[in-house]
Amino acid sequence: DTAVSQTPKYLVTQMGNDKSIKCEQNLGHDTMYWYKQDSKKFLKIMFSYNNKELIINETVPNRFSPKSPDKAHLNLHINSLELGDSAVYFCASSRWAGETLETQYFGPGTRLLVL
Amino acid sequence: QQQVKQSPQSLIVQKGGISIINCAYENTAFDYFPWYQQFPGKGPALLIAIRPDVSEKKEGRFTISFNKSAKQFSLHIMDSQPGDSATYFCAASTSGGSNYKLTFGKGTLLTVNP
After folding, report:
1. Residue A48 belongs to what H/E stretch?
2. Which of A77, A102, B19, B94 could form a disulfide with A94 if both were Cys (CB 3.0 to 4.6 A apart)?
3. Which residues are A112's β-sheet partners?
4. Which residues from chain B sit within 8 angstroms of residue A55, using beta carbons?
5. Residue whose C-alpha is closest to residue B22's, from B6, B34, B35, B9
6. Residue A110 CB neighbours (<10 A)
7. For residue B32, what is the nearest residue in chain A, using CA coordinates?
8. Cβ contacts (< 8 Å) between B93 and chain A: which residues?
């Protein structure tokens, strides 16, 4: 019973291609996130959605477009892939408690390699 | 601007020893300080978290010490075990509002030798 799942686990593609990563959570959470972890393991938030509404967009290139069809899903589409996009992308989810912070649960990651 | 500075970058400890990882922050509005543990090939998982109204929180072998005036917090792992070998991230965030996000430190790779 995976709480936060991502597909695919590995993604190897050529520069210039377009690819998508899918994320699903079965925790009943209403907030979902995308993080990027670079080769030095630095974790940085990219996007956050609450109830399908974008609430955080951390100056990510326009080539990255998140989409949340419902509260349980958050997908990430990347256009015109570049070498620098190679990284591990993590999806996470949490409850939205307004004034308090809730634990974020991370998925297993999608390892993207752009050749 | 790195808002959460973490040290050391890597740490090697003998089994049974104490592992100490330190973090310092700049934003005085931060009021939530979690530590995440990440094993190779896995996503980060919450280990323990603290809010600034207490100076220490202990869960089993893991303790967070918090110094609000110095804007520093640290993770202590007592009786370190080989199974604790992982990358540890400190993080910080502010409560409330729609701009809630975790700012992570750069991580510490802990190796516990048997």
Report:
1. strand A43-50
2. A102
3. A11, A87
4. 98-99
5. B6
6. 21
7. A101
8. 101
